[in-house]
Amino acid sequence: MNTGKLIVFSAPSGSGKTTIVRHLLGLVPLNLEFSISATSREKRGDEIDCKDYYFLSAKEFKTKIKNDEFLEWEEVYRDNFYGTLKAEVERIWAKGKHVIFDIDVSGGLRIKRKFPEETLAIFVKPPSIDALKIRLKKRKTESEDKINMRIAKASAELATAPLFDVIIENDNLEHALFEAEALVDNFVNS
Predict the structure, then answer these.
(1) Judging by DSSP bridges, how do beta strands 80-85 and 38-39 pair with one another?
(2) Which residues 6+ apart lie within 8 Å of 45 measured at CB?
(3) How far is 56 from 72, CA to CA, in rounded Å?
(4) Would strands 98-102 and 32-34 be described as parallel, antiparallel, or unpaired?
(5) Secondary structure (3-state) at 187
């Protein structure tokens, strides 16, 4: 693989990592492009295939695993696979851009292990589990059971925070965006 820089944002669902990543993508001088993850889960709301995710059936996903087509992958929830296709990273690097990821903690740490020098791994920490639950409920995209599953998983994810290069606490979005900008700018220009 031809290497550029890799910027990983991981966090429990509802921590604000997607908001931060979208903000950074709007900053042209950073020369970033979003890595679209593959998933076997159903589309939510108005999500678009090949824009929000590469939506695959569980069978297609498993075939790609067998064919070693993923940089990293995880069965995040039962029969819900998520992963990063090698071809996606190669596509972005071929354009001379840096890759930015919005992925789960396991996937983020796998990328960091595979590309330790090329990767900046950032963990976005919510102010509290209670704040996380409120944010997830406000989304109105998932059932109460699914929200409870995400909250239960969040405790384990929070325990991985020290394994990342940097932790950004997102208790003030403006401050979190400023901090993320400075970190990424410094990394891509070093």
Answers:
(1) antiparallel
(2) 141
(3) 15
(4) parallel
(5) helix
Residue with tokens 């992963």: 83
CATH of 6-188, one of 3.40.50.300, 3.30.56.10, 3.40.718.10, 3.40.50.2300: 3.40.50.300
> DSSP secondary structure string, 50-109?
TTTBEE--HHHHHHHHHTT-EEEEEEEETTEEEEEEHHHHHHHHHTT-EEEEE--HHHHH
- Give the tens place of pLDDT for each residue, 136-159: 777 777 778 877 777 878 888 999
SS (H, E, C) 12-27: CCCCCHHHHHHHHHCC
5 vs 82: CA distance, rounded Å: 21
32-69 exposure pattern, b = at least 16 Cβ within 10 A, e = fewer:
bbbbbbbbbbeeeeeeeeeebbbbbeeeebeebeeeeb
For the stretch 17-54, pLDDT in tens is 999 999 999 999 999 999 999 999 989 889 999 998 99
Q: Are 99 and 89 in contact (CB under 8 A)?
A: yes
